[in-house]
Amino acid sequence: MDSTSYSVTSKELCLFLSRYAVFLLGCGATCIRLEKNVRRMAHAFGKDVELTIMPRHVHMTVYGKDKNEMFTSIDTVLHTAISFDINTRLSELSWEVADRKIGFFEAKERFESIISSRSGNRWVVLLLVSLANASFCRLFGGDWVAMLMVGIATLAGFYLKQQLLRRGFDARVTVFFCAFLSSVLGATCALYGWGTTPDIAIGTSVLYLVPGIPFLNSFSDMIYSHYICAFSRFVDALILTGCLSVGLCCGMLLMNIGMF
Amino acid sequence: MNLPMFTWSCVVALIMVFMLFKVVLFVWAKSVENRLFELGNEYDEFYVPGDSLEDED
C-alpha cells in the first residue's frame, strides 16, 4: 500500500499523535512546541485536532473537516530523561510529515525508531558535564585549583546521579545526595587551604544540578498561557532546587563552612 | 580528627573503595573473557578434526 496516499482514520491518527505528544512532553518540550507539532501533522493528514495539555496527561480529540468522525484519547505523560536530541528529531518528523515527504506508516516507523534509539554515550556526557561545570567555576572567578576540584566533584556527583536514576531512585532524593557529595568534595580547597577561591569552588560544585530546563519551560508555558503546566513545572523545579539547597547546606554544615 | 576532616575522609574513602571495586570487577570480567593461562587436558591441544570426540570414547 502506498503510504503517502493512504487515508488515515481519526482513530489511527489520534492514537499515534497521542503517543507522540506524551513522548515529546516527557523529553522536555514546551507546550507550544507540542501544540504546533501535533497540529502540523494532523493538518498534513487532512484532520483537525484539539488538545488539552495537563501536567501529567494529554487529552486529545482528532476529527475530520466535516466532524463526522471523531476520536478522543487520554494518555499519561512519560517520565523519560530530558533529551534535546529526541526533542529535535521528533520535531523534524513533524516537518517531514507536513512536507508530505513521508506517509502515515513511515511516520509511525520513524517515531518508533526515534523513541527506541539510545541517548548519547553516558561516559561522554559525564566528561562533558564535568568540564562544563569546571568552566562555570572559571566564569565565576575561580582559580585553576578550584576548577580542578569542581571538575572532580561534578564527576563524582553526576556519576552518582546517573547510577541512582538508572536504578529508579526518586529525583528529589537523588539531587539531595548528589548535592551533598559534590559540596563535600568541592570543599576540599577550603579544608586543605588550596588555591585562593575555595568559596567559589563550593558554590559552583552543585551548579550542574540546577533544573534549568524546567524553569525555562515553565516560563515559556506561562508566556503562551499554559498556566497549569507552567505552574506545575515551576513547582517541580522549585522542589528540586530545594533538595539541592538542603544537600548543599548539609555538606557545608558538616564541612564547617560558614554560609554567610 | 575533627568533624569536617572525618566527613571528607569518609566520603573520599567510600569513593575510593567503590572505584577499586569497579576496577577489580572490570579486570576480573576481562580476565574471564580472555584468559592468559588456563588449565586444560592434552585432548584440547592435540585434537585434529576427524578424531573421535571425548564423550564418544
UniProtKB/TrEMBL annotation, chain A:
Residues 16-254 form the Threonine/serine exporter-like N-terminal domain. This is Threonine/serine exporter family protein. One of its GO terms (biological process) is succinate transport. The lineage of its organism: Bacteria, Pseudomonadati, Bacteroidota, Bacteroidia, Bacteroidales. It is a multi-pass membrane protein. GO terms for cellular component: plasma membrane. It comes from Candidatus Barnesiella excrementipullorum. Keywords: Cell membrane, Membrane, Transmembrane, Transmembrane helix. Its main location: membrane. It holds the Pfam family ThrE. Belongs to the ThrE exporter (TC 2.A.79) family.
From TrEMBL, chain B:
It comes from Candidatus Barnesiella excrementipullorum. Keywords: Membrane, Transmembrane, Transmembrane helix. This is Uncharacterized protein. The chain crosses the membrane at residues 6-29. The keyword Transmembrane helix applies. The keyword Transmembrane applies.
